[in-house]
Amino acid sequence: MVLDLEKRTYLFVTGASRGIGQRMSIEVAAKLKPGSIIVLLARSEQGLLNTKESIEALGNNVKVYTYSTDLSLVTATQFRELLEKSLKGVKISDFERAFIIHNAGTVGDVSKSAVDVSDANVWQQYYYVNVFSVISLNCEFFRVFSGTPKVVVNITSKCGIEPFASMSFYCSGKAAREMYFRVLATEQALDNVVVLNYAPGAIDTEMTEQVQRESTNKELVGLFKKQRDNKTMLTPEQTTAKFLQVLQEQKFKTGDHVDYYDE
Ligand SMILES: NC(=O)c1ccc[n+]([C@@H]2O[C@H](COP(=O)([O-])OP(=O)(O)OC[C@H]3O[C@@H](n4cnc5c(N)ncnc54)[C@H](OP(=O)(O)O)[C@@H]3O)[C@@H](O)[C@H]2O)c1
Hints:
Rossmann fold; 7 strands; globular; binds NADP nicotinamide-adenine-dinucleotide phosphate
């Protein structure tokens, strides 16, 4: 099956101010039909405006909204209001597809081991940004676009299926988040709902810079340093190109974990 992106689409991307989310927003936007709406969410207003500017420069007649929002504070009601605000004056039935990319994420405190943090509040804060807010937004998205064909992408990681020392926040959060989307895919096993868990590979962004700077995992730090020094670390452009190929070829089953390095 082929997933044709050239549709009148409502596209929602979290973490769209920089890194992978910024590149994916621009590249997916480039494929959409005129009349599409693109909603970009992150905290940095300037980063979001940069992404919006790049999309508008494509000249493909889509409308772009930016919402500077902190996912550590946002409620389901605020997500609902934000979705409704972006849809003011348009009919849901105008859209051939609703497409969401749950991309925003943080790596957590990589200077700590799995037995260092006993304060449940610290874990709760991490899980609020990386798991709870994602589920909350996804529920509201499904409520608003109940009758619309949907593509739901969770940006996951190899860390969601394999343990890495110093990354107990990140690995456990990615595993929980991915399992939520696998359950969703099982429940929504319909032709008009496609769920993809996409693992982008190790990418040259602020996230891997933080790991390289702060992690106690010497092996991982050494690997990232080597990749940076000899310029072999993947770029947001490279992983986005693969992401579009994976989507368009649609060889995966709904709910699958697909990695950049998969054939
Ligand atoms: N880089 C990698 O090697 C790699 C590998 C596997 C998976 N991933 C996943 O890819 C996704 C994007 O990562 P990246 O590498 O592009 O990282 P990044 O450059 O650090 O970007 C993270 C994005 O998330 C947003 N974000 C973080 N905290 C937020 C909050 N509290 N509220 C709202 N937005 C928030 C950031 O925007 P603001 O700071 O403006 O809020 C930014 O747009 C993440 O889910 C990550 O886990 C990355």
